[in-house]
Design a protein that fits this description.
Elements: H1 2-34, H2 41-48, H3 53-59, H4 62-70, H5 79-83, H6 86-94, H7 97-113, H8 116-125, H9 131-151, H10 161-178, E1 184-185, E2 188-189, H11 193-215
Antiparallel strand pairs: 1-2
């Protein structure tokens, strides 16, 4: 009897996990296909092929589901994507500060550019505040602090690196969002990898010059 109960509980847990995964995927699909204005409990449940009551049971409603989506790796790049595993982090730590800094931002730019739906939501964030954008703020803040903590271990020169990183990340956000509709910015391509290589190389150049000036 105990064995049967354990098996039953295990199956129920697996079914719930699968259903939650379907709903998280569905919310991204609804956003991608119809936009935020069409996002609702009925639309998400229909997309996932499940009863809408499960959204309330598992996530306490649509806001809870949107928060879960914001924390999913398909929406926002995790630290493992930006910094890599332990070996890759050690390799970053062996670089000069300028090279390591630029490499982290290269990965960050690539991660955002590979997530068109995230760019859509970043653009919504500038005009509308909702449960998803609020959750995204929390995820981004947490990730930003983790990245700054890592960069601080790379022996940075004296400078306000939090402010400098914000300038670079803000620029990346704006240009990546703009590139969805417009392919150039002041004559430079922002829709192709070549243009982004120039941008990242310029980040490395600027940081290297900050390092050089500190050494004088």
């Amino acid at each position: 009897m105990t064995y049967k109960i354990i098996l039953k509980n295990s199956k129920a847990t697996k079914n719930r996990e699968q259903t939650e995964a379907k709903l998280v995927t569905a919310i991204g699909e609804v956003l991608a296909e119809r936009g935020f204005g069409k996002l609702g409990v009925n639309a998400v449940a229909k997309q996932a092929g499940v009863d809408k009551v499960l959204i309330y049971r598992y996530f306490d409603g649509l806001d809870g589901l949107m928060e879960r989506y914001a924390y999913s790796s398909e929406f926002w790049p995790p630290a493992s994507e930006l910094l890599g595993d332990q070996v890759q982090r050690e390799h970053l730590a062996e670089m000069s500060f300028a090279d390591g800094f630029a490499e982290v931002f290269r990965r960050y730019a690539n991660a955002l550019r590979s997530r068109p739906l995230t760019l859509e939501i970043l653009s919504w964030e500038t005009i509308e505040r909702n449960a998803l954008t609020i959750a995204m703020e929390e995820v981004r803040e947490s990730m930003g602090l983790e990245l700054m903590a890592f960069l601080s271990q790379l022996d940075p020169p004296e400078a306000d690196w939090q402010a400098i990183a914000n300038l670079f990340s803000g620029g990346i956000h704006y240009l990546a969002i703009r590139a969805r509709k417009v392919s150039t910015y002041t004559g430079m391509s922002i829709a192709e990898d070549e243009g982004w290589e120039r941008l990242i190389a310029s980040i490395g150049f600027l940081v290297a010059n900050i390092e050089a000036n500190q050494e004088i």
